[in-house]
Amino acid sequence: MPEAIEVEHLVKRYGELAAVAGIDFTVRSGTVFSFLGPNGAGKTTTTEILEGLRNRTEGTARVLGLDPWTDATELHRRIGVIPQDFRFFEKITPREAIEYYASLFNTRRDPVELLGRVQLADKAGARFDTLSGGQKQKLGLALALTNDPEICFLDEPTTGLDPTARRAIWEVIRSLKAEGRTVFLTTHYLEEAELLADQVAIINHGRIIAAGTPSEIIAAHGRPERLRFQAAPALADYLRPRVGLPVSAEDGRVDVELARPSDALKVLQAVESSGIPYDNFATARDNLEDVFVRLVGQMDEGTLKTEGAA
Asked: Are residues 74 and 159 in the same domain?
C-alpha cells in the first residue's frame, strides 16, 4: 500500500526544549494507526504538525504526499479532524453544524445519515450546549467526516462515552478502514488501540520508544506468560528453589513465569505438594497497557533505549 503519512527526523523545538526530538514513522493508506504516549510526550505536537496547524523545526512530514505546512489549504480539504475536548457554537444544532461544515467544504452530505452513523440522529435538533460530553464527541466525529476525508485524525474520540457508545465509535472506525480511509488515532485507552490499530507507535519525551503491530510490541517488550495464583507470599518462597523459574509475589498474587507450556504442570505439582492454600489460579499475559506502562517507566528511569523508526 502507498504511504498516507511519512515522517522523517521530525523535530519541534520551543527554545531549548525539544518537544519532538527526531522521530521517524510511516502510516500505510487504508489502515488504523494509533499514536500513544503519556501527557507531555510530544503526541499532540506531532499530530498538529501533521494536520498543518503547527510548523516543524527540522525534518520532513508528508501527508497524502503534501507538506502539511506549505500545502495546508489543499490538505485540509482531504482530511478530517476531531480535536480532543471538542467544542462548537453553543446554540447550533447537530443538523445545522453539519450543514454549516458542508457549506465550508462545498460538499453535499445528508445530516441525518451522518448523525445516524455516529448514533446521534435522535439529537439532530438539540442545541449543542444541551448535549452531554459524549454526544459532543460524537458530533465532532460526524463533522470530521463531512468532507469525505481520505485521512481522519481522531484525538481521543471516545473520551466521555459510555461502553455502548464507545463500541459504536469503534464500529465507525472499522467502517472507515473498510472504506479504504486512513485513521490516525490517539487515545489513552490502551485496550482500544490494541483492538483497533494495525500499527502502533509509542512516544515519550519526544522520542519513539516502541513501534510495530500491537502483537509485535507485546512480544518484543512484554513479559513471558505467567501462571498466577491468589495466595500468600509464602507460596512464592516455597516455589522459588523448587521450580527453577522466576517467581514474584505482589498484592495477594503469586506469579510464576513459564518458559514453555509444559512448565505449567511442574508448577501445579509443586503448588499442590506445598500444602499452602490458594484461592484460584489462571494464566496471565501482558497486554499493550502493561507494556506501555513498563516502557514509559523504564524511559523515565533512564534504562530504555529509544527506537528510531516505526
From this structure: yes
| Domain annotation covers residue 38 | yes
Rg for the chain, CA atoms, rounded: 23
The secondary structure element, H or E, covering residue 232 is none
Q: What is the pLDDT along the chain (310 residues), one digit of tens a residue?
A: 579 999 999 999 999 999 999 999 999 999 999 999 998 899 999 999 999 999 999 999 999 999 999 999 999 999 999 887 788 899 999 999 999 999 988 888 899 999 998 889 999 999 999 998 888 888 999 999 999 999 999 998 888 788 888 898 899 999 999 999 999 999 999 999 999 999 999 999 999 999 999 999 999 999 889 999 999 999 999 999 999 999 999 999 999 999 998 999 999 999 999 999 999 999 999 999 999 999 998 877 666 665 543 3
- Partner residues linked to 60 by β-bridges: 8
For 220, phi then psi, to 5°, come to: -75, -35
Clarify whether residues 232 and 214 are in a common domain. no
- The answer to whether position 260 is within a domain reads yes
Same domain, 156 and 248: no
| Nearest-angstrom CA–CA distance, 4 and 6 | 7
Please state, in angstroms and rounded to a whole number, the distance separating the CA atoms of residues 35 and 167.
20
Residue span of the structural domain in which 206 resides: 3-78+149-219
> Residues 6 or more apart from 75 whose CB is under 8 A from it?
52, 63, 64, 66, 68
Cβ(13)–Cβ(57) below 8 Å: yes
